[in-house]
Amino acid sequence: MIVDRAEFVGGIRAQLPILLGTSPFGLIYGILAADAGLSVDVTLGMSLFVFAGSSQFIAAGLFASGTPGLIIVLTTLIVNLRHMLYSASLAPYTRHLSAGWKWLLSFLLTDEAYAVTITRYRRGDNATGRHWFFLGAGLTLWVSWQVSSAVGYLFGAQIPDSWSLDFTLALTFIALVIPTLTDRPAVLAALGAGVTAVIAHNLPYNLGLIVAVLAGIGAGMLAERLPVKPDAAVSAPADGSVCDV
Asked: What is the pLDDT of residue 131?
């Protein structure tokens, strides 16, 4: 197996700034799990094998309220359905990989790993080792998540409430979304999903998230079908050469 060290290190570097937002999120999960009465092995086991922050938060909260196990599983499944969209977006770039690589990368697929990886894949070069970038980004976040959730569980009681660590995650997602808003469909999809998420926030079982996703997809597809204004077209250079836009 040929290791593309440059791509792997590039994935690590791309993910490091994002840890400023995800690490506090992991601390909060550890604290919430401890308050919910989850044992240390269950708490850390979820981080090791589930590795899905939002689902872990919801599962811990539902466990604390005595929710039946089947409802917990179905709720977390609904929340994680957004990963199907990430997978569909990455599929054209990873279809050539072996089954082992696909299984590994699918496990490491998260919001943060997707954001930096899809940006790398969409870059115009012909690098063949870009899956190593994906691996570097995903592993960096996975290791950080294990450490932060463990620290939160073991030492969370010593963290002052005044720190408001949950606010850092919102800032992180804003930082992830802004660079991807490069065209009209992306902007309208983000606006549609954002507005719908606020309106549907109180729907049960986090269904507001799914409704927002569908609204964002619909807005983006509609924007792609709308005609482009004539003045937005790029005219050909006077010398007759072709301009690649």
From this structure: 94
Of 150, 223, 218, give the one whose Cα is nearest residue 185. Answer: 223
Please identify which residue in the block is written with the tokens 């409430």.
161
Contacts of 30 (CB under 8 A, 6+ apart): 43, 148, 149, 150, 151, 152, 153, 154, 156
Task: Tell me how far apart the alpha carbons of residues 206 and 214 are, in angstroms, rounded to a whole number.
Answer: 14
Q: What's the CA angle centered on 92, arms 89 and 98, to 5 degrees? A: 115
Q: Quote the mean pLDDT of the chain.
A: 82
The pTM for the full model equals 0.72
Please list, in sequence order, all residues whose beta carbon lies within 8 angstroms of the beta carbon of residue 221, skipping any fewer than 6 positions away: 185
pLDDT value at 121 more than 50: yes
Whole-angstrom CA distances from 41 to 28, 48, 61, 197 are 17, 10, 17, 34
Category of 97 on φ-ψ map: left (φ > 0), alpha (ψ -120 to 50) or beta: beta
Closest by CA to 32, choosing from 2, 64, 6, is: 64
